[in-house]
Amino acid sequence: MADHGNILEGASVLLGVTGGIAAYKAVDLAGRLTAAGADVRCVMTPSACKLIRPKSFEAVTGRAVFTKMWSGPEEYRINHINLADAADIVVVAPATANIIAKVANGICDDLLSTTLCACWDKPVLIAPAMNSRMWANPAVQRNVGILRQMKFDLIGPETGRLACGAEGVGRMAEPADILAAIEKIAARIEKS
Ligand SMILES: Cc1cc2nc3c(=O)[nH]c(=O)nc-3n(C[C@H](O)[C@H](O)[C@H](O)COP(=O)(O)O)c2cc1C
After folding, report:
1. Cβ(143) – ligand 1 distance below 6 Å
2. What is the pLDDT of residue 45?
3. From CA 100, how far away is CA 29, in angstroms rounded?
4. CA distances from 45 to 133, 159, 161 (A)
5. Is the minimum distance from the CB of 47 to ligand 1 under 6 angstroms?
6. Is 170 in the pocket of ligand 1 (CB under 6 A)?
């Protein structure tokens, strides 16, 4: 990373977007990261692609978006290992109960989960977002505990109005707060 005033200038950030209703907020995050000088590569799960189009991320990052294991905008020149190798910082926002379970258990059944499996020793920030009943599920909490043991950073979820209309814990942290957490991680990397 370059040593400029802006800590994220030149940082390579891998943004994983999963199939939570908060996926639309990840576009804002991708835009903020790009504006901060980061080189943002987005990897979306098939469920995320049902909620929001890859084009939105392409538009704000100016970069191709990766959605498939076996083909993509740059075909086989960029695969899950290249994506992992290139990343200085990895962020998953929103992180569904499903991706949290897959990462915690080493499951690799799509491009994002496979890429994340190769990122276990990188700085990874997870922003969970789900219904509060899902968040309270002991299996979800066990998986979150595993991510903490793996030294992943977590931000949120926050309490408030959920997409389903209920009040409770489960809202994804706000993009501005996620950006601030990423900047803190970048500062930590720079010091080490
Ligand atoms: C409209 C809609 C919104 C959803 N929102 C969430 C969510 O916020 N959090 C979550 O964990 N799952 C949510 N789901 C369920 C996930 O999309 C589902 O578990 C999916 O398998 C997740 O796949 P992924 O983790 O590969 O993206 C939602 C599903 C639908 C149809």
Report:
1. no
2. 98
3. 20
4. 23, 25, 25
5. yes
6. no
C-beta 21 within 6 A of ligand 1: yes
Please check whether residue 69 is in contact with residue 82, taking contact to mean a CB–CB distance below 8 angstroms: no
**Which amino acid type is present at position 113?**
S
DSSP letter at 76? G
pLDDT digits (tens, 9 = 90+) for 60-119: 999 999 999 887 655 556 688 889 999 999 999 999 999 999 999 999 999 999 999 999
DSSP alpha helix (H) spans, 64-156: 80-86, 97-104, 111-117, 132-136, 138-149
Atom number, ligand 1, closest to the C-alpha of residue 48: 27
pTM: 0.95
Tokens 């960029």 appear where? 78
Backbone angles phi and psi of 10, in degrees to 5: 80, -5
Active site residue 164: yes
- Atom of ligand 1 at shortest range from CA of 99: 25
Q: Looking at ligand 1, which atom is closest to the CA of residue 110?
A: 26
* Helix pair angle (97-104, 138-149), 10° resolution: 50
In this structure, which topology does domain 12-191 adopt according to CATH? Answer: Rossmann fold (3.40.50)
Report d(CA 42, CA 54) in Å as an integer. 9
Strands (E), the chain: 12-17, 39-44, 65-66, 89-95, 124-128, 153-154, 158-161, 167-171
Question: What are the tokens at 134?
Answer: 């899902």
